[in-house]
Write a structure and sequence with these properties.
Chain lengths: ~425, ~170
């Protein structure tokens, strides 16, 4: 056990039986450092969509925890992920968000690396004759695996495969990733913004916080729909559900229309596109996923920090920048065979709702910043936070994989997220991290 | 340049600058009725997302890539309607906005009755106890002359931040 946070302190941070959380997890520097070491350095992490780097030599840069990495399509067509720091003096090597390059060369001493991270050579290389084995001084590679277009990487050699890590949650991911033979792609570019909140607020909000939707986003819903509040699209439905598998979570309805109706009220050609698609989606995904789940108000998080909204089409990652700061990177995902006008409309609605200037997202950052800050107070921190709504109500379901609780107004997925978080935080190695169906 | 041409240039600049300042005050005061009255019905209002790329990978901005805004008057009205709902919690208390408009250049546009205007803006936002956000951007506008005065028909906003350094973009530039 890392001495930074004593075991008894760690175990007290979340009360899974009664449903409460110690506010310390949102601001404590020691807990944050432990998260970087025990969670982000061990977990599979989303790094890219394959469509962002289609050709050999294409690359982008992103973060795994706070480690900057290059995600590159190597000459053999495989995607490689490696540290963006020169093993000579540690300087950052690549300063572009994305691009195309045959090699990555450090500005400091001209050490040069291939698109798989291998050290190719350096400035005035003859001086190094006999002093370096270049094969040993490449850029440290992460493991890379993909799931239907999404690229994940992991720095822990003991971690199970990505398929095992995602487990039963793949059934839910397919609702977004497997609507057509053509697959999906990200629209080019990325919206990035930084603000002062703990990374877990974004992750836990998207994994299960349906109760904030109709309150926080009342103004956004009314703006988008000429006056309709959220419940017009997200009625209190006893069949709506929280589902979680291995710490990943999905919450949503089964009416098949809530999100599409709210988001595309003024874009009937998008609604028509999905209507045309429905039968094919049902053939691929079955009646429940293809017609009843997709299209409902849904939000979801892949543990630990990758979230998405099916229908609204935002996918985003909450990159930690310290206990009190995150960088949010967001993309719009579309089916690769979407007609141009539908694709443009999906992008527009995504920007209009879930983007820093969007009428929905506008209110989220405000809440998470102020929750992060207020939780620090010396007296304030002595009172735990209530996560007790329908605690302990999840169980197996005949229709839905994972642990399921109905309706979707609960803290069930949030507690499953923190259960997984605690699994990582208290484990000495992957051998101690259980598989949670 | 002879004196008459110089005066014409100056008058055009003065007219354009007056328009931009009036628009800025409307935005600072959340006076969106006035703001919309200054917009042409066919407005295209575009603010692309920024990216840091190597010089070799630089390319013109593409409206089909990610953006903060890519709006018409109708979709701007939808966005602004949020403030009128009474439940835009994060706008109560209100944000203090200040648009500083500078480096204005105005030349006759290609189409008749238009003015091509470039300007820089520095937008200061201050919220609650001590939140401060600074945005600096270049703007390329097309203004159209109508019987009622100039109207904004096209605007491209180029923000000088790669990563937006704030929780939201609750402002028009």
């Amino acid at each position: 056990m890392d001495a930074r946070v004593a075991a008894d302190v760690l175990n007290d941070l979340v009360d899974f039986r009664n449903g409460s959380v110690n506010r310390r997890i949102f601001w404590d520097e020691d807990i944050y450092q432990l998260e970087l070491e025990r969670l982000f350095a061990r977990s599979w992490l989303f790094v890219a969509h394959e469509s962002q780097i289609p050709r050999p030599g294409d690359f982008l840069t992103t973060y795994m925890g706070q480690d900057n990495v290059i995600v590159a399509r190597h000459t053999d067509g495989a995607i490689r992920v490696f540290l963006n720091s020169c093993p000579h003096r540690g300087n950052r090597i690549c300063f572009a968000d994305r691009g195309h390059a045959r090699r990555f060369t450090c500005n400091y001493h001209g050490w040069s690396f291939a698109s798989d991270g291998a050290l190719l050579g350096m400035h005035e290389e003859s001086h190094y004759e006999g002093w370096i084995d270049k094969s040993e001084w490449g850029l440290l590679n992460a493991r890379v695996e993909t799931y239907k277009g999404l690229v994940f990487a992991c720095f822990d050699s003991e971690a199970p495969s990505l398929d095992t890590f995602l487990g039963d949650y793949r059934w839910y991911l397919d609702i977004v990733l497997d609507q057509t033979d053509a697959g999906t792609e990200f629209i080019g570019g990325c919206i990035k913004n930084e603000f002062d909140c703990n990374w877990k607020f974004g992750a836990e909000n998207f994994i299960g916080d349906s109760l904030h939707a109709s309150w926080t986003h009342d103004s956004g819903s009314r703006a988008m729909t000429a006056g309709h509040p959220v419940p017009d699209y997200m009625p209190v439905d006893p069949l709506s559900f929280h589902a979680n598998a291995n710490g990943h979570g999905w919450e949503g309805g089964v009416d098949g229309i809530g999100t599409l109706g709210l988001t595309f009220m003024n874009k009937p050609h998008v609604l028509a596109y999905y209507e045309r698609k429905r039968d094919a989606m049902v053939r691929r995904l079955g009646e429940l996923r293809g017609r009843r789940i997709f299209g409902s108000v849904i939000s979801a998080t892949v543990f630990p920090n990758f979230s998405f909204l099916p229908g609204i089409a935002t996918m985003r990652v909450w990159l930690p920048k310290g206990p009190r700061r995150i960088e949010l990177r967001a993309w719009t995902i579309v089916n690769s065979d979407m007609p141009d006008d539908v694709r443009d409309a999906v992008l527009h609605s995504c920007a209009q709702t879930f983007s820093p200037g969007g009428v929905m997202e506008m209110d989220d950052g405000e809440n998470w910043e102020n929750a992060t800050k207020a939780n620090e107070g010396v007296i304030t921190r002595q009172q735990r936070l209530h996560y007790g709504l329908r605690v302990g109500s999840a169980g197996p379901d005949p229709d839905l994989p994972g642990n399921v609780s109905r309706p979707m107004y609960s803290d069930v997925n949030q507690l499953a997220f923190y259960r997984r978080w605690m699994d990582f935080m208290t484990a000495d190695s992957w051998a101690d991290i259980p598989h949670r169906r | 340049m002879d004196r008459t041409a110089a005066i014409d240039t100056l008058l055009l600049w003065h007219e354009a600058y007056g328009f931009l300042v009036r628009e800025a005050r409307a935005l600072d005061e959340e006076d969106y009725d006035t703001w919309f009255s200054l917009l042409a019905p066919d407005l295209h209002y575009w603010m692309p997302a920024r990216e840091t790329v190597f010089r070799a990978d630089e390319a013109p901005d593409d409206p089909r890539r990610m953006y903060f805004y890519n709006e018409t008057v109708d979709t701007l009205r939808q966005r602004v309607a949020r403030l009128g709902t009474g439940t835009a919690w994060s706008e109560n208390p209100r944000t203090r906005y200040r648009h500083l408009v500078t480096n204005v250049e105005a030349v006759p546009g290609e189409a008749p009755d238009t003015v091509a205007v470039r300007s820089n803006v520095l937008v200061y936002r201050n919220r609650l106890e001590r939140e401060e956000y600074w945005l600096v951007a270049a703007r390329e506008d097309l203004l159209r002359r109508t019987a009622d005065g100039l109207r904004l028909a096209r605007r491209k906003i180029t923000l000088d931040q790669n990563t937006l350094l704030s929780k939201n973009l609750n402002v028009y530039l």
